[in-house]
Write a structure and sequence with these properties.
Length: 391
């Protein structure tokens, strides 16, 4: 008996499965079919296929009670019949599917953090990204809250997990993970791919705002300018991939090794007057001009929150007037002997002085916030090429 080797080669090309795996799947299928045959004379069977000629050789086997081979002899596979042939086909298809899933797992394992691209497929409540011969699961928790993914639309995501399961590999993707932003910038900015520009830190609230800290390894290359691109083109391209309606703003800021400088840069586009670090409790007190207070804090505290996540410091932002009022009041209380040099009250009058200082400073803070809101500073709506803070 012979089989068409070219037919097995065709399966190899179509499925992307190694030729030897295809042949072994056929051998297993033939052995299983033999055991279902009315002409079977052995308990088990072993089938070999000549990889060049396609010649099929079947060896019937007799087993003892413990399943060991007692004897083996060659038989001519013939008269399998319709049911047995169907069994052979089912076994072959099953083995090929298993082999195909192994190929998929081998292709994607270790690719966590890679960008994938494909068409969105909505199957009931499940969202998938079609990747040719396979697909990636896009869980609801990994979808951008205010983005609607249309069936058939093209989208990109980042691989966050590759699970090996009984039925093969399951690729889990995300559109909310910060690694998606990193990967998209690597695609858009040649200097990142070449290692000239590095992304040193990232903080993201998917669908709303992302802060990216970058540095250059070449004094002649401006890291922020490279990521923003001519006329903001590169940053906008990433922004569009992150959200079809371009609702997610991207702040591109300069990385700094000195924590004071990094905290100041991270609050961009707000301008910072000074930064005071308190390492014992990991707090950075930031002083900004009054008209910059709303911008530094951001809508619902978002700018300050992302800056804190980017730098690893808790950030306390105060306006210049607020800070000056606090310093004046505390200095007065200290001169009067009501508090010690660390601002701790020494009496009931000292406690009252501290409370009064805080209230006075809070009035100044609120006044600065009100002025900022009236001027629209909290809107955070700068275009991609307007500032270092990007898109």
């Amino acid at each position: 008996m012979k089989i068409d080797i070219d037919a097995l080669r065709q399966i190899e090309r179509e499925k992307g499965i190694d030729f030897l795996t295809v042949v072994e799947a056929f051998e297993t299928a033939m052995a299983s079919a033999y055991k279902r045959s009315a002409n079977a004379t052995g308990d088990e069977a072993r089938v070999t296929v000549d990889r060049t000629t396609g010649e099929v050789t079947l060896f019937a086997q007799e087993l003892d009670d413990e399943g060991s081979i007692v004897s083996e002899w060659q038989e001519e596979p013939k008269d399998f019949g319709r049911i047995v042939a169907q069994t052979a086909k089912q076994v072959l298809l099953q083995r090929l599917r298993e082999a195909e899933r192994e190929v998929t797992y081998g292709e994607f394992v270790g690719r966590e953090g890679d960008i994938i691209s494909g068409q969105i497929s909505q199957q009931g409540n499940v969202t998938l990204i079609e990747l040719g011969r396979t697909e990636a699961l896009l869980p609801y928790a990994e979808q951008i809250p205010n983005e609607r993914l249309e069936h058939g639309a093209h989208s990109r995501a980042v691989v966050i997990e590759v699970r090996k399961q009984a039925r093969g590999a399951q690729i889990v993707a995300s559109r909310t993970h910060p690694a998606l932003v990193v990967g998209l910038f690597a695609l858009e900015v040649p200097e990142i791919e070449e290692g000239i520009v590095e992304i040193k830190g990232i903080a993201r609230e998917a669908g709303h705002r992302t802060k990216v800290a970058v540095m250059s390894n070449d004094a002649n290359v401006d890291a922020v300018g490279a990521c923003v691109g001519p006329g903001g083109q590169r940053a906008r391209a990433v922004q569009k991939e992150l959200h079809a309606d371009e609702l997610e703003r991207i702040d591109i800021v300069r990385w700094a090794d000195e924590p004071e400088d990094l905290v100041g840069n991270a609050l961009s586009p707000a301008k910072v007057s000074s930064v005071y670090l308190y390492p014992d409790d990991g707090t950075a007190m930031v002083i900004v001009p009054d008209y910059q207070l709303s911008l530094a804090i951001g809508r619902e505290g978002q700018n300050a929150r992302l800056a804190a996540r980017l730098t690893g410091w808790r950030i306390d932002i105060k306006s210049e007037t607020q800070f000056a009022e606090e310093q004046r009041a505390f200095q007065e209380a200290f001169d009067q002997g009501l508090i010690d040099e660390y601002g701790n009250p020494l009496s009931a009058e000292g406690e009252a002085a501290i409370e009064a200082a805080v209230q006075t400073a809070e009035v100044a803070r609120q006044s600065a916030l009100d002025e900022g809101e009236e001027s629209g500073a909290a809107g955070d709506a700068a275009p991609a090429d307007a500032e270092e803070a990007g898109a």
